[in-house]
Amino acid sequence: MPKQLFIKTFGCQMNELDTEKIAGTLSDLGYSLTDSPDKADMVILNTCSVREKAEYKCYSDLGRLRELKKENPDLIIGVGGCVAQQEGERIVEKAPYVDMVFGTDNISDIPKLLGTSRGKPRNKVSTGRRRAKYAGNVSGEVNIPIKRSNPVKAWVNIIDGCDKFCTFCVVPHTRGRERSRQPDDICREIRGLAAAGYKEVTLLGQNVDSYGKDLGGNAGLAGLLSMINYIPGIERIRFVTSHPADFSDRLIDAMTELPKVCEHLHLPLQSGSEEILERMKRNYTYKEYKDKIKRVREAIPDISITTDIITGFPGETDGDFNMTMDALMEIQYDGVFAFKYSKRPYTPARLYDRLVPSAVSKDRLDRVFELQNCITLLKNQACVGREFDILIEGNSKKDRGKLTGRTRTNKIVHITKRDGISTGDMLKVRITSATRASLTGEVG
Ligand code: SAH
Ligand code: SF4
Ligand code: F3S
User: Fold this and answer.
1) Domains of the chain, with CATH numbers?
2) CA nearest 258: which of 221, 207, 289?
């Protein structure tokens, strides 16, 4: 009977990919995934630190795991991800029942932490309470096995870390400085994915537009996209996240010219106020941002655009916030991820004064959602009656009679199951109805 592993993932796509790497590493040590922590021999929390709430969730989950461990003293508890990177051994001080803590660059050290570096699982971890040291420049060169959770679409990491140091953001302090993977390594990985039947890849990085700056040469993300575009078998290429200061005309040209690059752009705005953007140290003005949106829409008229917004950044007045609302009206995003500002360790903004009361930030957040929900619904309704190419990704999570796919513009589409249609198929679908969250379509 293989040992059972339960992993809970918080945070961004980067963490989702890391979870697949943790699962792959532990699969080599004889663990198979379960979706129930109660039955598990090992539970891993892959944590996120981007907002206080996410960090708090890690500790409240650990409290629950402590109870599980009382019932099953052999249970191995591991903490990975950005809270692990940020807190290191302090996690073990706060929660001494944790057996191992590993940073975001230390997934390949898990066998060592378990005392199984030669690949043989041990039943007990007696000396596992060690934190793997931050290993620095390891991306690309370390070949970590990946247990992918979807058979048709795959995450592919192209750049780790972030050098932007926006004043609110903890990520540069958890994921470290930017390190690009070698293009050859990336293309080799994607050729392997194509050979295994994957149809879609999403290139991942906190700031994908910085790709290659540390490698010399000037091919950048546009050059990488054109190489991947020639890999047979891969039909769709996506990338996240772009940074408005670095998003370039060259990339717009690549998106326009390369047939496999999908018509979707996630370009986090954060705020519509010039003053707030400046104090966030985002390195662009709203006007510059708007010009880029205009250029990309001129080049790719059907593109869908999504964004991230923060409400209640220190010093945000009603006037500043109204500029964010105006921006939402003006730009007409397809979707928005919005968050209440949260004070994070190591960030300059944690020392800023003129804090916005939590209730005000929350009210502003609600107003963002209220407005954006209307815009998203209208945008989705405008798809009704039109035909789209859908890549089928699997069964619908909510309705067993349905399959779920996505348009190139990243909109979710449900279709009724029927013989001859299966995961991985690319189909033409006519949209028959729309909600804010998804579209429904008919084949043919
Ligand atoms: N690299 C990406 C995303 C980083 S984290 C980018 O630059 O856009 C994802 C989102 O979380 C950010 O875009 C931001 O909107 C939000 N975020 C980051 N730090 C935050 C904080 N301290 N409080 C609230 N939201 C935050
Ligand atoms: Fe954080 Fe800014 Fe880097 Fe994005 S670009 S990860 S918001 S520091
Ligand atoms: Fe969270 Fe780390 Fe991603 S802080 S958003 S898991 S980079």
Assistant:
1) 3-135 (3.40.50.12160), 153-381 (3.80.30.20), 387-443 (2.40.50.140)
2) 221
Atom 2 (ligand 1) nearest CA: 206
Q: What is the mean pLDDT of residues 236-254?
A: 97
Nearest to 139 by CA among 108, 100, 117: 108
Interior angle at CA 234, CA 26 and CA 253, nearest 5: 120
Q: What is the pLDDT of residue 142?
A: 64
C-beta 280 within 6 A of ligand 3: no
Q: How many CA atoms lie within 13 A of 399 on its CB side?
A: 10
Distance 281 CA to ligand 2 centre (A): 10
Asked if 23 and 147 count as a contact pair (C-beta separation under 8 A), the reply is yes
* Residue 33 to residue 62: CA distance in whole angstroms: 19
Q: Per-residue pLDDT tens for 423-435?
A: 999 999 999 999 9
164 Cβ below 6 A of ligand 2: yes
Of the listed ranges 122-131, 190-199, 354-363, the least confidently predicted one is 122-131
Look over the chain and give the mean of its residue pLDDT values, rounded to a whole number: 92
